[in-house]
Automatic annotation (TrEMBL):
UniProt-listed Pfam families: ABC2_membrane_4
Domain of life, per lineage: Bacteria
Record keyword Endoplasmic reticulum present: no
Annotated keywords: Membrane, Transmembrane, Transmembrane helix
Species in which this protein is naturally found: Clostridium oryzae
Protein name: ABC-2 family transporter protein
Signal peptide segment: none
TM helices/strands, residue ranges: 18-36, 48-75, 95-121, 133-154, 160-182, 226-244
């Protein structure tokens, strides 16, 4: 498995796909900061302190940004019809799924690191650090990001599961987006219309937990996020392996 992971890392490191995608996001971030810096109101009312406070309200965004790592690791195999060729060389299917997932996690964390450095770095350079009463500290921000990582990884595990049961990359993208954009709201609607017991389901979903970090970041919420992330990851990667072992690959 290690050799296959190394091969996948090398292959994707030397392709333009990931770096072009990352470059576009970085360029958009820096470009928006430059436009904001050019405006009189933006240059006087915005700084790193404010940006850090805003960023903790956007912790669900990395879920969608990182989806591209599933696209070039698993979904591309469907597009190019190369999955069967890889498996025909004797690579165990469980190894294939685990390797693809690990590669996705690696590139997702690398993407997150590059984007955060670009966002916070360009903001600090263009607007200064600043200070706002009640603003979070940088150490608290890092703690929130660290607590979010297990949930971000869990979203990749769910994406891997969807990619296994659905062979069409376009449909996988729509299902993934629908699940994380609307899924929690549908559960909340069931809570209001059907039964209050659905609130327990809502509270353990990934997006509500990420959203709660902006208003309530405690040791209990950190523990809950870590445990939830680990359970989601184990369950959905386990299901992915079980289903993929029985799936006919064309």
């Amino acid at each position: 498995m290690i050799n296959y992971i190394k091969a996948e890392l090398y292959r994707n490191f030397n392709r333009k796909y990931f770096w072009l995608y990352t470059g576009i996001i970085v360029a958009a971030i820096v470009g928006l900061n430059l436009l904001l810096r050019a405006s009189a109101s933006g240059s006087n009312s915005y700084n790193l302190s404010i940006a850090m406070g805003l960023s903790v309200r956007m912790l669900t965004v990395p879920i969608f940004l990182a989806f591209v790592t599933l696209d070039f690791s698993i979904l591309e195999e469907y597009k190019n019809l190369t999955m069967k060729n890889v498996l025909s060389f004797g690579l165990p299917r469980s190894t294939y799924i685990l390797s693809k997932f690990i590669v996705s996690v690696f590139f997702s964390l690398l993407l997150a690191l590059i984007v955060m450095v670009s966002f916070y770095g360009s903001t600090a350079l263009l607007f200064g650090i600043g200070h706002k009463a009640g603003a979070i500290t940088f150490s608290t921000l890092l703690s929130i990001i660290a607590a979010s990582i297990p949930l971000w990884i869990a979203s990749l595990a769910i994406g891997t599961f969807i990619s296994v049961i659905i062979s069409n990359p376009t449909i996988v993208s729509f299902v993934f987006a629908f699940l994380f954009l609307v899924g929690a709201q549908l559960v909340k609607l069931l809570y209001m219309l059907v039964s209050h017991n659905f609130i327990h389901v809502y509270n353990i979903l990934i997006t509500p937990q990420l959203g709660n970090f902006a208003v309530k970041f405690t040791s209990a919420s950190i523990e809950k996020a870590v445990i939830s992330g680990i359970i989601y990851t184990i369950v959905f990667i386990g299901l992915s392996i079980i289903i993929f072992n029985k799936k006919e690959i064309k």
